[in-house]
Amino acid sequence: MSVEKMTMMNVIGNISDVDNVLKDIILSGKVDLVSALSQIEDNSFVFNVKDENLEKVIDLNYITSFSKDKNYEELLKKGEELESILNMKSNYMESNLKVDIDILKASDELSSIYEEVKIPSEELKKAQEELVEIEDFYKSFSNIRDINIPIENLRGLSHFDFRFGILSKEDRIKLKKNYENILAIILHTGTGKEGEVYLTIYPSNIREEMNRILRSLNFKEIQVPEEYKGTPIEMVKYLKAKKEKLQKDIDALERKLSNLREIHQDAIISAVNQLKTKEKIEDIKEELARSNKFFYLSGWVSKKDKEKLGEILKGYKDMLVMFKDETDLTPPTKLRNIWLFKPFESLVKMYGMPSYNELDPTPFLSLSYMFLFGAMFGDLGQGFILLLGGMLLGRKNKVFGGLLGRLGLSSMVFGTLYGAIFGIETILPALLIKPFENINTVLVSAIFIGIALILISYIYGMINSVKRKDMEDGLFGKEGLAGFLFYLCLLILIGGNLLKKPILSMEVGVVIIILCIAVMVFKQPLTHLIKGKRPLHGEDITGYYIESVFSIIETLLSMLSGTVSFIRVGAFALTHVGLFIAFETIGHMIGTTAGNIIVLIIGNIVIIGMEGLIVFIQGLRLQYYELFSRYYKGEGREFKPVNIK
User: Fold this and answer.
1) Hey, what domains does the chain have and what are their CATH numbers?
2) DSSP of 343-384, one letter per residue?
3) 218 in the Ramachandran plot: left (φ > 0), alpha (ψ -120 to 50) or beta?
4) I need a labelling partner for 399 at 20 to 30 A (CA). Which of 202, 214, 460, 521 fits?
5) For residue 314, which of 28, 21, 18 has the smallest C-alpha distance?
6) What is the pLDDT of residues 590-624, one digit of tens each?
7) 302-344 tens-digit pLDDT
C-alpha cells in the first residue's frame, strides 16, 4: 500500500542482440524506458570502467540514435491487406514475442500468397461494384417500365430533350400548381420508394430554363446509360439476367477466397505477428542509443524486480547491466495496493498520479470513500444489487466492476446498521440507528466525520511535505503544521462554546490562532531565515503580503465551508429514506397490492440508478475538493513498462 521504490537500469550489449534483448524486456513488463541518448549526453549513464569494458567506453565517441528500419512497413501493410481481403484478424499476444523473427521468410510467404489472392480479390471487387451499379439501374428501369417506348427513340428526337426523374409528394404539388407555366410534356410513369416517377420532354432550345425549373422542384434524375436500348421492360429483363450472372460469379469468387483463407490462414497470421513484433521493437529502439558495436539502454525498474531482470539479461554474451539508485531524474510512480484498494487507484489517477516522493492516497481514499458512500446510501437490498452488478460488470471492466462491488458491500454494511432492506425499515432491526428517526444525530455525526477526515488529511499533507523536504509548506503553510493547529484550535474554541464546556481558554486559543496566522503570512521569510537563505523575500514584497493576507481569508472560509460541507453525508442518508417514503406513499394511494408492489419496484430502480449516481458523485466531490486539496498534489508520472499493446 505504497509507491514502489525505483532504480535506474543501464544496459550495454552487442548490437546484434538488441532485438532479442528488447523482446525479453517487453515480455518481462517491468521496464519503463527513458532516452539513453539523453542519459549519456547528461553524463548520467554510469558504469564500471574496467579493462573488459574499455571498448564500450571508446565506442561512446560514436554514439548516435537508432535509425528506424522501414523495410518491414510495406510488408506489414501487405499482410494487413491480406487479412482484410480474407476477412481474418491476427490474434496478437505476448506468445508471439517468443517466436524468432524471420523477416525474409515472412516476406517470401506473404508475397507468394498476395499474388495468389490479388487476382480473384480484384475480380470480386469489380463484380461487386458492377452489381451495385446494376441494382441502381434495375430500380430505375423498374420505375419506368410502364413506358412502351424504346429508349433509343427518345434519344433520336431532333429538337427535343428528355429526362426521367423522381419527385417527392410536396414537389409534385408545386409542379401541379405551375403546369401552365412549364413549356414541356410531363408524364407520370410510375411510383417508387423515393417518390413519384416522371418523364419530361421539352424543346432543346429551352434546356437551361428547364434545368432551372427542375432544380427548383428537387427533381432527382434517373440516369439512362447510352449502352442501354429497347423499352424499359426489356431493359429490366436484361438487367435481371445480368444480376443473376454477376451474383453467380461473386459466389464463385467468394468460395475461392474462402478456400485460400483456409489454406494460408496460419501462415498469414504468423507472418503478420512477426512483423508487428518487429514494428514494436523498432518503435522502442527510438529510446535507445547505439555505437558501431554496442547498444545502450536506460529504464526505470522497481527495486524488487532488479534480480529478476538481471537473471533475464545475464544470458547474453558481454552484456553489462548496472543499477543506479541516485539520479537527477524524478522516477515514475508505480502504485502497489492490496486487492481491496486496487480499483480505487482509477479515482486517484483521475485527479492526478502521485509523485514519487508523495504518499499514495489510495488506501485513505478507499476506506473513506466506501465509508461515505455506505453512510449516504445505506440499504442491505439495494447494496446487494450494486454488489451483484459489480460482479457482472467485472467480467468486462474489472476496475468499474470492482468499484461498484465494493461500494455495494459498504452499502450493505450500513443498511444492516440502519435496518433498511429495499427501503423497508420494518423487517430488520437497526443495529446502530434509524436515520429518519434521529435527524439531528445524523447531521451532527456527519460533521464530526468530516472533521475527522479533514484532520487525517492534514496529517497526510504534513507527511508529504516531509517527504518532499518542503519546510515552507510543511511547517508554515495553510495545509501544514500551522494550518493544522489553526484549524484544531478553531474547532476547540467553537466546540467548547457550543457545549458550554471550555476545553481551552479563549485567551490562549486566540493567541495560538494569531500566532498561526502570523506564521502563515510570514512563511517565506521564516523559511529563508531558518535555511540561511537570502534575500528573505522574493522581488515583489508587497504583492507577496497582499496575497498572503487574502490567502488567510480564503483558508478560514475553506476550513468552515469544508467542514460544513460534510453535512451532505447526513442529508443524503435522510434523503435516501425520504425518497423511498415518497414512493411508498404513491403505492398506497394506488390502493391495490399489485399496484403498490409495482411502484415499490420502480422506486427501488430509480433510487439505485439516480440516487446511487448522485451519491457516487457527491462522495467523489468530498474527496477531491475537501480532502485532496489539503494534502495531495498528484503531479507524478505513471510507471508505464514497455509492452506489446
Assistant:
1) 2-66+290-332 (3.30.70), 146-230 (3.30.70.2750)
2) GGHHHHHHH-PPPTTS---HHHHHHHHHHHHHHHS--HHHHH
3) left
4) 460
5) 21
6) 878 888 889 889 999 999 999 999 999 999 999 99
7) 999 998 988 888 888 888 888 888 777 889 999 999 999 999 9
